[in-house]
Amino acid sequence: MTKQRPTSALFTNPLHVVNLGLSSFAETLQESHVPVIDVNWRPPAGGDPLLIQLIDNLKSEDGSAWNQQITAANETAIEHLLTAEPHIIGIGIARDVVPGMRDGMILHAGPPVTWDTMCGPMRGAVMGGLLYEHSASTPDAAAKLAASGDIAFEPCHHHQSVGPMAGVMTASMPVWILENVTAGNRSYCTLNEGLGKVLRYGAYGDDVIKRLEWMKTELAPILSQAIAKHGPIDMRSLLAQALQMGDEGHNRNRAGTSLLIRELAPFLVRLSEPSDAIGRVLEFLHSNDHFFLNLTMPAGKCALDAAANIPGSSLITAMARNGTEFGIRLSGTGDRWYTAPAPIVEGLYLPGYSSDDAAPDIGDSSITETAGYGGFAMAAAPAIVQFVGGTPQLALDTTQRMREITLAESRVYQIPAMGFRGTPTGIDVLKVAETGVVPAINTGIAHKEPGIGMVGAGLVSPPFSIFAEGARELAASLARSSEFGTSAKRLVD
Amino acid sequence: MTKQRPTSALFTNPLHVVNLGLSSFAETLQESHVPVIDVNWRPPAGGDPLLIQLIDNLKSEDGSAWNQQITAANETAIEHLLTAEPHIIGIGIARDVVPGMRDGMILHAGPPVTWDTMCGPMRGAVMGGLLYEHSASTPDAAAKLAASGDIAFEPCHHHQSVGPMAGVMTASMPVWILENVTAGNRSYCTLNEGLGKVLRYGAYGDDVIKRLEWMKTELAPILSQAIAKHGPIDMRSLLAQALQMGDEGHNRNRAGTSLLIRELAPFLVRLSEPSDAIGRVLEFLHSNDHFFLNLTMPAGKCALDAAANIPGSSLITAMARNGTEFGIRLSGTGDRWYTAPAPIVEGLYLPGYSSDDAAPDIGDSSITETAGYGGFAMAAAPAIVQFVGGTPQLALDTTQRMREITLAESRVYQIPAMGFRGTPTGIDVLKVAETGVVPAINTGIAHKEPGIGMVGAGLVSPPFSIFAEGARELAASLARSSEFGTSAKRLVD
Fold first, then answer.
1. Which of A197, A245, A467, B187 might form a disulfide with A432, Cβ 3.0–4.6 angstroms?
2. What is the ipTM of this complex?
3. pLDDT, tens digit, 9 for 90 and up, residues A394-437
4. Going from the N-terminus, what domains does chain A have, and what CATH number goes with each?
5. C-alpha distances in angstroms, B330 versus B313, B371, B375, B430?
6. Going by C-beta distance under 8 Å and a sequence separation of 6 or more, which residues neighbour residue A283?
7. A324 near A281, Cβ under 8 Å?
């Protein structure tokens, strides 16, 4: 037996712990009922020494010219974003209206990805897309064709488009056409299919293809005629109202969908179409509270495209995921993607499913957060926590935290519960890099296997590394093109 | 010259004031930039010595039998209120469906009132009602007829009905029919005309009468057919959703109106009616965000009627104003009204108008607050402050304060921003009497002259005296009918 020693005070007195760093240390103690204050502390610049120097330099006298250039570029970029006025101007067939779209091409969500590296739900959606196009007659044949190299896979984002979840757009799909009437640029998005077993979540069964057929032959032509009679629809107005009615424009769109229905119903009813067909259209819209999502997304896309390609700007113009990688683009570095493996979403699962079933984060729908709503406007939509998890307080905190990494507040999208303050808008990659606060994104969760569909919804944090990389590359691009403080040049060389 | 004396410290040192009582003392000091803490203090029981003794007695051992009887009665009453399930079951013509309604009768808002004592907007609405019924051909002739004694004026509330603002219902007007499917009782309300120059605000011009004609000949028949095809519509479900979409069900009904439109549109479009007529109906609903108000009101009425006439219950079953008097009814004292002069509404005025133009508080719409929404659910509708004045914080505070005077929380009407807590429901006249906290009511403001219409919207506080009187009379009714502590009997004799 070892000799007995006096017990240390650490083991006899009650513990009172302040935890800095990994929350898991705090959680372990909390499970043992030890009182813990878990400080939400992150190392500056994610602890990246080069990035810390870069940011320090920007704040120094040496970096002032550089800083001024970024500030001026951001002022231009954010003004384009804030003054964009996206209007719904119609519905067309993708091959006829989407720039560069053609038969044999499939657009998908997120940064570029190949068939070999595609996640399950995106593969499922591609197979469904090929069945829908009659390019293959069985799922196996579709998978073979997809793998053959005969299909061109390109990101929606490379074609002025965005797509939720798998984001698959094929040549004969009907698409919304939006125009930013301030700058004249357009954007495109497919029509929303509803929740559950749907193509964008990777399902490709007969019911999925049949619904897509109906959307092409009845829903889209009828909606298209109603919009033609109505005239362009101001998405800013609808979205601003929806945010005052408990939507955030990403995972909660009940108000937006309702407002769209009441806007179009008087025109729908007067069309020279069979009343049963119009009735089916109205029933479909009524049954699908996410219908408005495929409008909030291209509204964000055409607003952000107007703010793209401004040399020196650290504004993030796209955040998008393909289920394999999470990617961002910066205004100051144009078309370049910064990517890292897509994370798993934390959220609420449908009965019978768990995080074991989840595909990694997927979809272009994070364009809504990039444009200043979605997760960034979560405080406007406390009821969303019933869908994505969390508490109403989390919703308020999330919006508040996003103010730390954004360049401005929206002048039209307001949050009543925050005294009508504008939503945090325009993510600054340098602020993300400096604070370590990453954008908050509300999102759906697809099953990891092709052919199944939606399994839940939740919140996701993008990988910090892509913001760090973006910040460094922005600095490098500036160093190559202008006069800098020498130390800045040294850092990025 | 008087001899100079040393100045008192009161006049030389900075003042730090705590104000109890009238806020006007604090305001005077605030205007002079003196720091003041204005305590929101009210004398218990409004300073009424008899009422103080009554409430003290209820809490004493002597009053325990009495207290138990009231508690038991209130448990029964609140259960009827909380479990009521109001459904829209159709639309009919008042003389055919409203109990006791007949030609030559005009129902109005609030407690009983005569032509001689009616306020301007109610007179205007009565004149418009007589023109609409072709009982008179000019406004002057209508006023003469109204004064002749040949028209029977009765409160809506005496006919299972409620009416917003002037609340005028005539025999040939179409009315919503609601049924509380739990208890089987029904309620009725006219259809909402929109805002501005409308009958319920006292306007009676040709445009007003023409709109009412159209509502009878086209709107009501078409809506009635759509509801027949749809089947009964569960108002609890619609209202619960609307409260999660920024409505409070009294002065903000944009979400409720939207939900009703999307519910009915698929049925409207399939009717064998001219598509232009259906288009006009949908346009009218789309243009009138208050359309849903005339459904939230009878929903409250049939829920509260199920809780009425329970001996000993201190639950308030009606709060209603006729522009001359504000009245309430208690479950325990049945049909009896407790009234006092109607106050002036504090609020926001339309351009060109001020409180000098305002009629006193008017309308049965305070049935919404009585049933546990409207002002009581203001926290669900922070955007309403743009319509009625105040700040989003006031909206939160108002709902929170109403918890002090209510018996329960709704099990279906929830406020997301308060962690999905139920709305404060079921006003207890004894709690109002004890605390001096009066119910908070959101309301519209009519011009004081007949024929003009709406001039604003705001918040109104009912007169305390009617709650004190109600509490005393409830006690008296109990004293007459049961065994009491002797001191309680002495108090009410």
1. A467
2. 0.89
3. 999 999 999 999 999 999 999 999 999 999 999 999 999 999 99
4. 9-39 (no CATH), 49-81+309-492 (3.90.1700.10), 84-299 (3.90.1710.10)
5. 7, 13, 20, 11
6. B266
7. no
What mean pLDDT do residues B276-291 have? 98
Element (H, E) at B477: helix B464-481
pLDDT digits (tens, 9 = 90+) for A469-489: 999 999 888 877 655 545 555
User: Are the beta carbons of A245 and B245 separated by less than 8 Å?
Assistant: yes
- Bridge partner residues of A324 (DSSP): none
Q: Are A455 and A447 in contact (CB under 8 A)?
A: yes
**pLDDT given at position A1:** 45
Average pLDDT over residues B63-74: 88
pLDDT (0 to 100) of residue B39: 64
In chain A, what percentage of residues exceed pLDDT 70? 91
Helices (H), A60-175: 64-83, 94-97, 120-132, 139-147
Contact between B335 and B449 under an 8 Å Cβ cutoff? The reply is: no
Q: Residue B278 is encoded by which pair of tokens?
A: 């259906």
B278: closest chain A residue by CA: A269
Count other Cβ atoms within 10 Å, centred on residue A50. 14
- Per the structure block, which two tokens stand in for A18? 């302040």
CA distance A101 to A153: 11
> Are the C-beta atoms of residues A395 and A381 closer than 8 Å to each other?
yes
Residue numbers in B near A392 (CB within 8 A): 416-420
% pLDDT > 70, chain B: 92
DSSP strands (E only) in A156-290:
174-180, 186-190, 233-234
Q: Strand A316-322's sheet: what is its strand order?
A: A338-341, A325-330, A316-322, A362-363
Beta bridge partners of B36: B17
pTM: 0.90
Residue A356's pLDDT band, with cuts at 50, 70 and 90, is: very high
Q: How many CB pairs under 8 A join A and B?
A: 113
Three-class SS of residue B27?
helix
Instruction: Please tell me if residue B104 touches chain A, with a CB cutoff of 8 Å.
Output: no
pLDDT score recorded for residue B6: 57
If we measure between CA atoms, which residue out of A314, A430, A304, A471 comes closest to residue A374? A304
Beta-carbon separation of A261 and B261 below 8 A: yes
How would you label A273-293 residue by residue, b for 16+ Cβ within 10 Å and e otherwise? bebebbbbbbebbbebbbbbb
B282 touches chain A (CB under 8 A): yes
C-alpha distance from B268 to closest chain A C-alpha (Å) = 8
CB A389, CB A378: distance < 8 Å: no
Nearest to B261 among A265, A385, A392 (CB): A265
Q: Tokens at residue A290, please?
A: 């996410």
Structural tokens at position A464: 């910090």
Between strands A186-190 and B316-322, the pairing is unpaired
B254 and A245 in contact by Cβ < 8 A?
yes
A65 touching chain B per CB within 8 A: no
CB–CB contact B392 A283 (8 Å):
no
Q: How far is CA A255 from the centre of its chain?
A: 19
The encoded tokens of residue B110 equal 């609030």
Residue B434: CB atoms within 10 A of its CB come to: 23
Query: What mean pLDDT do residues B442-468 have?
Result: 93
**In Å, how far is B266's CA from the nearest CA of chain A?**
5
Tell me if A172 sits within 8 A of A78, measured CB to CB: no
Helix residue ranges, H only, B62-179? 64-83, 94-97, 120-132, 139-147
E strands, A207-361, are 233-234, 316-322, 325-330, 338-341, 346-349
CA distance B137 to A81: 59
Residue bearing tokens 């100079």? B4
- Computed on alpha carbons and rounded to an integer, the radius of gyration of chain B in Å comes to 24
